[in-house]
């Protein structure tokens, strides 16, 4: 039988990381001790009190049934309370909050609710690849907003073509940013909200990294600015904050119609997040946040080792204020893919080529701070041996 995949899959961009994954496995098979700074997945375990909450919740047979589509009422109340405490944003839990099976799930399903075939979705470049992929799967047309160093890796709103803005249905923003680690302030969010209102654009704010920040910095939420609730939805994740990437738990907040549309799509596709995981999520959001501070301290120490080390090698790197990523300029004359390949083949160090996040990511590689300081120092020492 001739099995053909749907045309929408053929429209997806090639998976640029695949080739590097293959190469990493080859290098590892040669017996090389690989230092993997590629994937943004925390290396530390979920804090014990959250695991204990899951253990207890899993013993209760009431959690074994299908969950409510929009999530446990209590989880949504706790998420709203957390937004109030953290950002001083008031939310109506049963209208403006929805539980997600990880924020990726919500981000991926969102365009199915609001993007018609041919609709333009403005996506950052470089960016977490899901924004573009989910737009294509919904039949939409992703148009890249380049994030450039000279603009602090924020989209240049003033330079955006008004005909394009007129056509755009959705704009995606993500701060603190993966992969550049750039941060946005409230003034930027105010400008986004005003632009969105003027051109009737839905704003998707991906806030997966707001809690992973250093030196006393507290990243703001798009929802804090006037008008945000009229135009926007914000996606939040417990994955990175509490080392819970495998648990699949997040939530979205914002405009009630946007939340309801996402809920309608989800009700056709999934049956909600496991109640026991939501109960553990309640513990994560309500218990002491010391574990978050401790993780941030750990990442801050690692950041110093890698940033100082890379700078010492003459590479162009800024110290990130948030996220566990270090965005590093590639030496002149090399592509990001060539540079990554060199680091892997000649030093056994895995990084991610900027171009894999979009064309405007060319010229950079991303390192994740997901190994301890000694290993990071070793990575730096190995790179020093390459004479970059
Ligand atoms: C920018 C960004 N948004 C969302 C996610 C998805 O996180 P999760 O689905 O685990 O909540 C990630 C994961 O790496 C990410 O980097």
Task: Give a structural overview.
- The N and C termini lie far apart (52 Å).
- Strand 5, helix 9 and strand 6 (202-206) form a beta-alpha-beta unit.
- The chain has helices at 7-10, 17-29, 48-59, 73-87, 93-96, 103-114, 130-137, 162-167, 186-199, 228-231, 256-269, 275-286, 290-312, 336-347, 373-384, and strands at residues 35-36, 97-100, 120-125, 141-146, 168-174, 202-206, 232-237, 250-254, 325-329, 349-350, 352-353, 364-368.
- The longest helix has 23 residues, at 290-312.
- Helix 3 packs antiparallel against helix 12 (275-286) and helix 13 (290-312) packs parallel to helix 15.
- The chain has a seven-stranded mixed β-sheet, sandwiched between helices. The protein has a three-stranded antiparallel β-sheet with strand order 9-12-11, with helices on one face. The protein has a two-stranded parallel ribbon with strand order 1-10.
- The model has no long low-confidence stretch (mean pLDDT 97).
- The chain is built from 15 helices and twelve strands.
- The radius of gyration is 21 Å and the shape is globular.
- The chain has 388 residues and is α/β, with parallel strands linked by helices.
- The protein binds pyridoxal-5'-phosphate.
- Residues 40, 102-104, 128, 174, 178, 206, 208, 237, 239, 245, 250 line the site of pyridoxal-5'-phosphate.
């Amino acid at each position: 039988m001739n099995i053909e995949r749907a045309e929408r899959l053929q429209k997806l961009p090639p998976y640029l990381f695949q080739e590097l994954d293959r190469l990493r496995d080859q290098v590892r098979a040669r017996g090389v001790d690989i230092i993997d700074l590629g994937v943004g997945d925390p290396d530390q375990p979920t804090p014990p009190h959250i695991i204990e909450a899951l253990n207890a919740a899993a013993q209760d047979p009431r959690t074994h049934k299908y969950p409510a589509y929009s999530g446990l009422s209590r989880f949504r109340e706790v998420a709203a309370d957390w937004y109030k405490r953290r950002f001083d944003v008031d939310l109506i839990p049963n209208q403006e909050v929805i539980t997600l099976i990880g924020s990726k799930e919500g981000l991926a399903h969102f365009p199915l609710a609001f993007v018609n075939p041919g609709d333009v979705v403005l996506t950052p470049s470089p960016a977490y690849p899901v924004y573009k992929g989910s737009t294509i799967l919904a039949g939409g047309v992703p148009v890249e907003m380049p994030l450039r160093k000279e603009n602090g890796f924020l989209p240049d709103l003033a330079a955006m073509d008004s005909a394009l803005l007129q056509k755009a249905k959705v704009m995606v923003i993500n701060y603190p940013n993966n992969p550049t680690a750039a941060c946005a302030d409230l003034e930027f969010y105010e400008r986004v909200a005003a632009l969105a209102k003027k051109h009737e654009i839905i704003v998707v704010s991906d806030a997966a990294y707001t809690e992973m920040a250093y030196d006393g910095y507290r990243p703001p939420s798009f929802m804090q600015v006037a008008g945000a609730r009229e135009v926007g939805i914000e996606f939040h994740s417990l994955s990175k904050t509490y080392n819970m990437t495998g648990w699949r738990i997040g939530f979205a907040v914002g405009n009630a119609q946007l939340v309801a549309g996402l809920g309608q799509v989800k009700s056709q596709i999934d049956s909600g997040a496991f109640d026991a995981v939501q109960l553990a999520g309640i513990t994560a959001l309500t218990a002491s946040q010391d574990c978050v501070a401790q993780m941030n301290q750990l990442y801050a120490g690692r950041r110093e080792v890698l940033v100082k080390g890379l700078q010492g090698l003459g590479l162009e790197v800024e110290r990130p204020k948030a996220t566990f990523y270090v965005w590093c300029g590639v030496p002149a004359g090399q592509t990001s893919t060539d540079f990554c390949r060199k680091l892997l083949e000649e030093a056994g160090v895995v990084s991610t080529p900027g171009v894999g996040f979009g064309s405007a990511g060319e010229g950079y590689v991303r390192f994740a701070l997901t190994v301890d300081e000694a290993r990071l120092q070793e990575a730096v020492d190995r790179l020093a041996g390459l004479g970059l």
